[in-house]
Design brief:
The chain is mainly α and about 280 residues long. The chain has helices at about 1-5, 25-95, 100-200, 205-225; strands at about 225-230, 245-250, 260-265, 270, 275, 280-284. Helix 2 (about 25-95) runs antiparallel to helix 3. The model is unreliable at about 1-20 (pLDDT under 50).
Length: about 280
């Protein structure tokens, strides 16, 4: 052909390889990524709860330490008062103020009873607080253990779901290929009948018509399954997303620069995704 002769003098550009994408690899990576993100979110939530409980326990301990210091301060004050009182009593006795000291004894007794009452109240209050904190800590531990079990159960459920999803996806891919191949069997039957007819017929026109019918049936089946040819007619703009330039040819005029001049091999798309790039000759 004249076109093939014209192609002998042109330069060959770098070949653009067809993209091959593994659906299984992408989906497996996506599922593993989702699983890792879900596990990280759950672990972060559990750590936040533990940190909150630890902070509350630290605050309670600080409050108890403060009250303990106040109690020790009160005891020291009372001990100082008692010592001063005994000292004053001793001085009064020495100075002959025995009656005055006797009048102070009931006051001392009141202070001692008051101190004992304060000791008892503080001890009861501290015990109540300790009991309340212990009870709250036990409840928190029980709640944490419960949430831990729920977390482990959720992780097991998620793992089962992931396995079921992968299995279902594998079966869908397998069955999808099976259905596609099953739809090709009638075309193969037509080709076999055509080959048998060719053996016993010399009518080229009828043979051509039969082959065209089989071809049209096959193309229609491809269209029904989402396979469509890529437009690579002469004069179409060269598109790197759809076309693969196998040869650059000097354009006869400026209007054909960057345009498709000839198609070496047709390209196809599957649901708007390039299944095979169209191999074309491009004007330069």
């Amino acid at each position: 052909m004249d076109k093939n002769k014209n192609h002998d003098n042109v330069t060959e550009p770098q070949h653009v390889a067809d993209n091959e994408i593994s659906v299984n690899d992408i989906d497996n990576e996506f599922v593993e990524q989702q699983e890792a993100e879900a596990a990280k979110d759950i672990a972060d939530e559990e750590m936040n709860k533990v940190d909150a409980l630890q902070q509350e326990l630290d605050q309670t301990r600080a409050q108890l330490e403060k009250e303990k210091k106040e109690y020790l301060f009160l005891m020291a004050e009372f001990d100082n008062f008692r010592k001063r009182t005994l000292k004053e009593k001793s001085e009064l006795i020495k100075n002959g103020g025995e009656n005055a000291l006797k009048g102070l004894l009931p006051v001392v007794d009141d202070f001692e009873r008051s101190l004992e009452a304060i000791k008892s109240d503080i001890a009861d209050e501290e015990m109540n607080k300790v009991d309340a904190l212990q009870q709250e800590l036990d409840q928190t531990r029980a709640q944490l253990e419960k949430e831990k079990k729920e977390y482990l159960f959720l992780m097991a459920e998620f793992d089962n779901f992931r396995k079921r999803t992968l299995k279902e996806k594998s079966e869908l891919i397998k069955n999808g290929g099976e259905n596609a191949l099953k739809g090709l069997l009638p075309v193969v039957d037509d080709f076999e009948r055509s080959l048998e007819a060719i053996k016993s017929s010399d009518d080229a026109a009828s043979i051509r018509e039969g082959v065209e019918l089989i071809y049209n049936k096959f193309v229609k089946y491809l269209e029904q399954n989402g396979v469509k040819p890529i437009d690579s007619a002469p004069g179409v703009d060269f598109d790197t997303e759809l076309h693969e330039a196998v040869t650059m040819f000097p354009a006869p005029d400026e209007s054909q620069k960057g345009k498709v001049i000839d198609t070496i091999q047709k390209g196809y798309t599957l649901h708007d995704k390039v299944l095979r790039h169209a191999k074309v000759v491009v004007g330069q």
